[in-house]
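Example S7 (structure tokens).
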């Protein structure tokens, strides 16, 4: 198994919105790295991990960038003067790239030009870049107004995907990043709900037929020369939300075509750092078509663990501290799942008639790790389990309060 010759440099994790952040805290903490976390509140499950050395409360979304930089520089001084910075979502990846010059006073992180990070984060720019580099993509349109959507719907072959080109902005406004639309009326209704006419940010994309297992993923780490030091592939078995969302159950499997295509793509654009990228296999033409490129650590990264314990967070730490990144073989058949989200999705799949009880039970064969539960670090799991158990009661209470207000009126 992998060991660090030098684990003295601490790591500061930015934002704890998903289970990926907890995975990073555990992965690095288990090898003796002091991991500190920055989040907008003190209730994130990762903060209860035994491997979280300390936490700092700061809202990176709301605070001006200059103030956030100063806050982080103070954190570095407080914990020893220098640390590795680890972004966990789109917002923090952009923040890191756009403020790199000042942050490098105290932090180490991959050198990624802000323009490249924005191009990969933006679905519109990513689509254009992929086409420029001859990487297969789904047919996509970028409407500027409702009339464009109506014209598109007049000749479209449904279903189609309505997706956010700017995921951050649209998700904050509507609570969704994408939806499958099966007809013109459904498309227009969702467009009206999700779009801001003053700042158009939605895209229309062909729906590539196939089940969840047609969605393939690549996780890797690229050095300063855009050489891949760690590479893993796998595919989704279930998603949350169903049919369109992030992995709730995944499996590691070799896919040389996806791996080689991704390595060549990243080499050509000069990418550095952790990469999380998704493709969908299109049986109609036999091509793997790029769906999303995340220039950061993905929430699913702990699915991808090599035979020596390597993952992309550990590869980054070794490389940025000047240590060799040992080669790692893919653990074919390794499964990973997100306990609460997969249960919700499984119920939906069952109701849709695509997942039976016996099939559901068999699907857990090969699971080697869960997102929340760990035998050596149980506190985050119990917090999530408690929150999950309370959700139905909160919904009932909310409906009761709403009904009481209506009656009172």
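Recovered sequence:
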């Amino acid at each position: 198994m992998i060991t660090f010759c030098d684990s003295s440099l601490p790591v500061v994790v930015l934002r704890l919105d998903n289970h990926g952040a907890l995975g990073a805290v555990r992965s690095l903490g288990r090898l003796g790295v002091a991991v500190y976390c920055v989040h907008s509140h003190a209730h994130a499950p990762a903060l209860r991990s035994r491997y979280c050395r300390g936490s700092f409360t700061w809202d990176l979304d709301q605070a001006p960038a200059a103030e956030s930089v100063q806050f982080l520089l103070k954190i570095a001084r407080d914990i020893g003067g220098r640390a590795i910075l680890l972004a966990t979502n789109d917002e923090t990846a952009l923040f890191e790239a756009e403020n790199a010059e000042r942050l490098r006073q105290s932090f180490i992180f991959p050198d990624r030009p802000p323009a490249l990070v924005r191009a990969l984060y933006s679905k519109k720019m990513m689509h254009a870049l992929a086409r420029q580099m001859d990487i297969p993509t789904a047919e996509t349109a970028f409407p500027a107004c409702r009339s464009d959507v109506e014209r598109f719907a007049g000749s479209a072959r449904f279903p189609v995907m309505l997706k956010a080109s700017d995921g951050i902005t649209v998700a904050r406004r509507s609570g969704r990043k994408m939806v499958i639309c099966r007809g013109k009326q459904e498309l227009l209704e969702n467009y009206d709900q999700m779009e801001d006419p003053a700042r158009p940010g939605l895209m229309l994309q062909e729906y590539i037929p196939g089940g969840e297992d047609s969605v393939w993923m690549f996780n890797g780490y690229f050095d300063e020369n855009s050489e891949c030091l760690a590479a893993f592939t796998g595919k989704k078995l279930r998603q949350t939300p169903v049919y369109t969302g992030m992995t709730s159950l995944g499996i590691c499997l070799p896919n040389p075509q996806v791996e080689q295509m991704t390595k060549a793509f990243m080499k050509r654009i000069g990418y550095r750092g952790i990469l999380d990228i998704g493709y969908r296999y299109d049986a109609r033409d036999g091509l793997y078509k790029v769906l999303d490129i995340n220039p950061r650590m993905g929430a699913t990264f702990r699915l991808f663990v090599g035979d020596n314990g390597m993952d992309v967070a550990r590869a980054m730490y070794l490389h940025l501290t000047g240590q060799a990144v040992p080669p790692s073989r893919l653990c074919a058949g390794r499964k990973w799942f997100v306990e609460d989200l997969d249960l919700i999705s499984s119920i939906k799949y069952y109701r849709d008639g695509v997942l039976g009880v016996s099939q559901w039970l068999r699907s857990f064969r090969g699971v080697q790790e869960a997102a929340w539960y760990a035998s050596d670090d149980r506190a985050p799991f119990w917090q999530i389990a408690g929150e999950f158990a309370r959700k139905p009661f909160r919904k009932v209470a909310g409906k009761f309060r709403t009904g009481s207000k209506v009656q009172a009126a």
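Notes on this example. The first strand starts at residue 11 and ends at 14.
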